């Protein structure tokens, strides 16, 4: 339950711009000694008091029940009523059956969410006053932001939006997207007006507060799929809102479930920018490691040995080379560069990093082929096993996986490529990439080379000996993630 002490009574009467987040966050004693007296002649009246946004009995709607939305819904539903909405009826059915195909939420966690209901029925969301949008933000085939899921989710929310409601977005976007792209959709579908302390960039005027307004919050997701240590509740949360009072309400709302604390941003645009550069920074750091790996490969130097030696200095950052895929790190930089170009700046470093990371799959394929030739193994019509298709270890997500680049590059050499990944949904792999993955572990002694592309715990536990049983006696073993002992593999990135 949210509690603001003596300030709570002012939320019923003060206009949104008169409530500062600092006032809402003061100690009760300090507030009591400095009471605020609103001037009824200078402030507009607000028929919908903000107190309804702090009512613990009002259900929250979570729109999108994927890797981000489901953990969020589960945590909130341990304390208050939550309605989880998703357009995928199959997803609703599996969650109602107590199963999560993303493996991010255990059956025990689902059972603990006693106040959570699932639906694909829009009308079910009408009682909600707070809507949290957690849909993906991919790029298209030309690396341009694809806002289709975000726009459709905004249309969904707009159809049930009421005066005084709060819409919080968690999807990763470029700075300005929430107010410039989502707000017009919400306004069009709801017939309401967006209220902020200052007009969004490009707006011609600041609409005064009336009984026909809604509010906005932005708190970017920081979920790390497959990570059992850094979970939703243990990752610090950036929060923001369209007015100081709304920002404080958004921050207090997340404080209900986030044990690591929050970081209130000064504006929605600051919070948007913070999120998109988190992943851009990581993308660039890995790009540097990948470029070093390309250089060291030509020098005949083991990259990991170099990094371990350099890492003996206290301020050397511990990044490793690898395939950069998934729905975040390999995508988000394009959102930032898109906005940069739109405002007249042409980024160089960010796009250079993307180019390097996108070529690493082809490099792995070339390295394996070179090793095969050096070992006297014929390349044409050979058979290679790729272990792992997910974009990262211990995760079933195949979206934007760069393992597919290795497979495509190998097939250009007329190599027969099989892929085995016990974590993924094979039907999804077929739908996304037209790839028929093996349903069972392959037969022993079959392959001329094996590529450990994804370091699932299953593969790491098998070790080089267990993996080599699927290969012919003189086959090549290539370790993309450098998780096996160097002396037990033929090459690694």
From TrEMBL:
Pfam families: UDPG_MGDP_dh, UDPG_MGDP_dh_C, UDPG_MGDP_dh_N. SMART domains: UDPG_MGDP_dh_C (SM00984). Gene3D superfamilies: NAD(P)-binding Rossmann-like Domain. One of its GO terms (molecular function) is oxidoreductase activity, acting on the CH-OH group of donors, NAD or NADP as acceptor. This is Nucleotide sugar dehydrogenase. Residues 34-45 have a biased composition (Polar residues). Keywords: NAD, Oxidoreductase. Residues 385-486 form the UDP-glucose/GDP-mannose dehydrogenase C-terminal domain. Residues 25-46 are annotated as: Disordered. The keyword Oxidoreductase applies. Belongs to the UDP-glucose/GDP-mannose dehydrogenase family. GO terms for biological process: polysaccharide biosynthetic process.
């Amino acid at each position: 339950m949210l509690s603001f002490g003596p300030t709570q009574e002012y939320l019923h009467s003060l206009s949104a711009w008169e409530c500062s987040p600092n006032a809402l966050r003061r100690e009760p004693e300090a507030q009591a000694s400095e009471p605020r007296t609103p001037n009824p002649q200078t402030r507009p009246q607000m028929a919908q008091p903000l107190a309804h946004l702090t009512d613990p009995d009002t259900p929250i709607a979570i729109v999108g029940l994927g890797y981000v939305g489901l953990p969020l819904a589960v945590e909130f539903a341990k304390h208050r009523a939550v309605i989880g909405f998703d357009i995928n009826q199959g997803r609703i059915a599996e969650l109602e059956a107590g199963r999560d195909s993303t493996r991010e939420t255990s059956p025990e966690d689902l059972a603990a969410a006693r106040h959570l209901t699932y639906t694909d029925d829009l009308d079910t969301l009408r009682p909600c006053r707070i809507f949290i949008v957690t849909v993906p933000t991919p790029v298209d085939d030309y690396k341009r932001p694809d806002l289709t899921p975000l726009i459709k989710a905004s249309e969904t929310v707009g159809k049930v939006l009421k005066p005084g409601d709060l819409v919080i977005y968690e999807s990763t976007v470029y700075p300005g997207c929430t107010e410039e792209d989502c707000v017009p959709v919400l306004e069009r579908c709801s017939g309401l007006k967006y209220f902020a302390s200052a007009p969004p960039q490009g707006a011609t005027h600041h609409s005064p507060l009336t009984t026909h307004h809604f509010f906005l919050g932005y708190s970017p997701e920081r979920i790390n799929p497959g990570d059992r240590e850094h979970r939703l509740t243990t990752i610090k949360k950036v929060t923001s809102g369209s007015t100081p009072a709304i920002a404080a309400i958004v921050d207090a709302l997340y404080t209900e479930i986030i044990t690591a604390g929050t970081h209130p941003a000064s504006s929605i645009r600051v919070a948007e920018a913070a999120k998109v550069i988190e992943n851009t920074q990581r993308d660039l750091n890995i790009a540097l490691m990948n470029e070093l790996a390309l250089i060291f490969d030509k020098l005949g130097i083991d990259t990991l040995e170099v990094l371990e030696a350099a890492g003996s200095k206290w301020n050397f950052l511990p990044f490793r080379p690898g395939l950069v895929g998934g729905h975040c790190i390999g995508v988000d930089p394009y959102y930032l560069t898109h906005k940069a170009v739109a405002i007249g700046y042409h980024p160089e470093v960010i796009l250079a990093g993307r180019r390097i990371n996108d070529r690493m799959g082809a490099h792995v394929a070339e390295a394996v082929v070179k090793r095969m030739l050096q070992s006297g193994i014929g390349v044409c019509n050979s058979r290679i096993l790729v272990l792992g298709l997910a974009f990262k270890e211990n995760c079933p997500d195949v979206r934007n996986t760069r393992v597919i680049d290795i497979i495509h590059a190998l097939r250009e050499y007329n190599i027969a490529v099989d892929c085995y990944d016990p974590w993924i949904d094979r039907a999804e792999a077929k739908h996304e990439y037209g790839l028929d993955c093996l349903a069972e572990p392959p037969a022993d002694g079959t392959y001329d080379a094996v590529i450990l592309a994804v370091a699932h715990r299953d593969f790491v536990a098998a070790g080089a000996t267990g993996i080599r049983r699927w290969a012919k006696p003189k086959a090549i073993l290539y370790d993309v993630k450098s998780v096996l002992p160097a002396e037990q593999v033929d090459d690694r990135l």
